[in-house]
């Protein structure tokens, strides 16, 4: 958990409660910070829950549980989902093969629940499952110059590539693991993992040594992700079928059975789902209270996330609408005029792996 540590308050941080933990809301004006990240590099302390699986059967256990194929090679990771029997998303996970153990990064408030659930499924298997959240700190480094930023402070290794591969090295005298991100902000990015007791030192290095970087909080994070067309767990993914929200990067259609696979395969085989996740742009200056999307006088969807974007200087959001609505249709959000737009809104130095994608098949179905 991120505490209101003095290193954050010294940089002017304000804090909020978000999904069960305290995180930095912002250090200053988020609109200016978003532009600073896109034009350079920024650093945010993440708020993951972290679960460790150790033992000879760990790989098989987790690979049989999630929607994507877990890498068998040390230093590699994958983005995956936990689904219920109806194919709906219960959790998102970044899963890393660390050789003698598997590390799963998940939404913080789900950590205890997942540890309990998974531990209850272990019988004679050689697996130890533990919540290790408090043992680590994780910092996101994002921006068009984030590769240069990492290169300027990382010793003993080069910046890792491709996405979700990691290397180990040092920053100053501190041991770190650096993961290449899947570009959720639409910019090049990395995550720096260190022991919790060295977190203040690592943050100070990231902010003050080598190439300049600005600190940013979750208000800017949300703005960056919407601009990049990246769906988030709590606003877009939770409770929906993966094919509906277009997170095909979390699915391996060739792997063996996992909970919810039958529904996912059914949606895939029959064609596009009944709804899709799209960009919404509003011709107004402030965020409306209404979230219902209307087309030709009919309720056709809901706005999931909405922000005032510093980069495109407009109110934009992500919305779930009926798949039959024409691309770039003129719609409304409540009484306000709006338009459907393709994602992402902003073309940065990279493209988010979670930008919604759909098969070319145009046959509509119910999901």
Give an overview in words.
By secondary structure, the protein is of the alpha+beta class. It has one domain: Gyrase A, domain 2 (2-Layer Sandwich). It is built from 10 helices and 19 strands. The chain has helices at 6-10, 30-39, 58-63, 111-119, 146-153, 199-208, 218-228, 233-237, 242-245, 261-270; strands at residues 14-18, 21-26, 42-45, 49-54, 77-83, 89-97, 101-106, 128-131, 136-142, 166-171, 174-180, 189-195, 214-215, 275-282, 292-295, 298-309, 314-322, 330-333, 336-341. The chain has a 6-stranded mixed sheet. The chain has a 6-stranded antiparallel barrel with strand order 14-17-16-15-18-19. A 5-stranded antiparallel sheet has the order 5-6-7-4-8. Strand 1 (14-18) and strand 2 (21-26) form a beta hairpin. Helix 2 crosses helix 7. The radius of gyration is 20 Å and the shape is globular.
Number of strands: 19
Indicate the CATH architecture: 2-Layer Sandwich
Q: Determine the N-to-C terminus distance.
A: 37 Å
Quick one: CATH class?
Alpha Beta
Give the mean pLDDT: 94
Rg (C-alpha, Å): 20 Å
Assign the CATH topology. Gyrase A, domain 2
Question: What sequence of helices (H) and strands (E) makes up the elements?
Answer: HEEHEEHEEEHEEHEEEHEHHHHEEEEEE
CATH superfamily: Probable tRNA modification gtpase trme, domain 1
Low-confidence parts: 361-367
Count of domains: 1
Q: DSSP strand (E) fraction?
A: 25-35%
Helical content band: 10-25%
Largest sheet: 6 strands, mixed
Which structural class matches the secondary elements? alpha+beta
With helices defined by DSSP (H or I, 4 residues minimum), what is the helix count?
A: 10
Spatial ordering of strands, largest sheet:
10-11-12-9-3-13
- The shape is globular
């Amino acid at each position: 958990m991120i505490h209101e540590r003095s290193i954050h308050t010294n940089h002017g941080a304000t804090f909020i409660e978000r999904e069960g933990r305290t995180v930095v809301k912002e250090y200053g004006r988020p609109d200016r910070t978003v532009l600073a990240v896109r034009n350079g590099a920024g650093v945010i302390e993440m708020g993951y829950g972290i679960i460790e699986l150790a033992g000879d059967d760990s790989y098989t256990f987790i690979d049989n549980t999630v929607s994507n194929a877990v890498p068998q090679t040390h230093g590699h990771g994958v983005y995956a989902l936990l689904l219920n029997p109806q194919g709906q998303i219960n959790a998102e996970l970044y899963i890393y093969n660390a050789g003698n153990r598997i590390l799963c990064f998940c939404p913080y408030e789900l950590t205890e629940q997942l540890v309990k659930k998974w531990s209850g499924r272990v019988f004679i298997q050689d697996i130890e499952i533990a919540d290790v959240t408090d043992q680590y700190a994780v910092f996101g480094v994002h921006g068009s110059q984030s590769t240069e930023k990492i290169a300027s402070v990382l010793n003993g290794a080069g910046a890792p590539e491709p996405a979700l591969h990691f290397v180990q090295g040092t920053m100053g005298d501190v041991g770190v693991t650096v993961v290449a991100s899947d570009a959720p902000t639409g910019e090049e990015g990395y995550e720096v993992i260190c022991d919790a007791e060295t977190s203040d030192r690592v943050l100070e290095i990231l902010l003050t040594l080598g190439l300049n970087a600005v600190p940013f909080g979750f208000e800017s994070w949300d703005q960056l992700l919407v601009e990049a067309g990246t769906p988030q767990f709590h606003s877009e993914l939770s409770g929906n079928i993966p094919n509906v929200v277009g997170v095909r990067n979390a699915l391996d259609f060739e792997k063996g059975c996992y909970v919810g696979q039958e529904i996912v395969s059914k949606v895939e085989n029959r064609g596009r789902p009944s709804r899709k996740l799209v960009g919404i742009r509003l011709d107004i200056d402030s965020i409306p209270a209404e979230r219902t999307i209307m087309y030709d006088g009919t309720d056709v969807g809901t706005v999931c996330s909405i922000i005032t974007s510093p980069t495109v200087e407009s109110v934009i959001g992500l919305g779930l609408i009926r798949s039959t609505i024409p691309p770039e249709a003129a719609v409304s959000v409540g009484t306000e005029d709006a338009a459907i737009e393709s994602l992402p809104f902003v073309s940065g130095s990279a493209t988010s792996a979670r930008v919604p994608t759909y098969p070319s098949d145009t046959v509509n179905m119910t999901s």
